[in-house]
Amino acid sequence: MTCARALAVATCLLALVACQRQPEPAAAPAAPTAAQPAATPAAPTAPAEPVAPAREVTAEQPALKLPTVDGKTYDLAEHRGKWVVVNFWATWCAPCLKEMPELSALHAMRNNIEVVGLAYEDIEPAEMQAFLKEHPVAYPIAIVDTYQPPADFAVPRGLPMSYLIGPDGKIAKQFLGPVEARDIEAAIAAAGGKVG
């Protein structure tokens, strides 16, 4: 391309940019006429309910009380004295589905370890019940509102996300990604607990 041709192309591009329509300034509102009554000022609206910011860190001793899919209520405080695995998961999460049978076996086989599954997704209870018929587990499942997750737990950074709660109700360990029974048992042993 010659210099003259390049200059002609550049001039055309500048002309196109200069010809683009500029936004027109907003017109001033017209004065009301006899046929048009003056607009009445809008009534003040009540301030919107403040939305609590999502928690970034899980409380040291979290509270958790949620309705479960089977119509009961799960209250973490009622399980003091046992190790509890709080497992955030979703039906669409392949690693979550892979760990469910092992978590179910752990819940069923250990007297001092319990699991609760928190379905972190927008799903109706009937859909979840149908899903659990295909993927049964021995532990309770609650559906968590993704817009208002449990107040004492951080919003999951990924799924699955599990917390091991000690018998004293305090967080002993956090797991990001799939967890196996041996990981949980090792964390219990590291915290000075016994697996029974």
From TrEMBL:
Its main location: other. GO terms for molecular function: antioxidant activity; disulfide oxidoreductase activity. GO terms for cellular component: cell envelope. Keywords: Cytochrome c-type biogenesis, Disulfide bond, Redox-active center, Signal. The keyword Signal applies. Residues 55-193 form the Thioredoxin domain. InterPro entries: AhpC/TSA (IPR000866), Thioredoxin-like_sf (IPR036249), Thioredoxin_CS (IPR017937), Thioredoxin_domain (IPR013766), Thioredoxin_ResA/DsbE_sf (IPR050553). Residues 30-59 are annotated as: Disordered. GO terms for biological process: cytochrome complex assembly. Residues 1-21 form the signal peptide. It is found in: Cell envelope. This is Thioredoxin. It comes from Stenotrophomonas panacihumi.
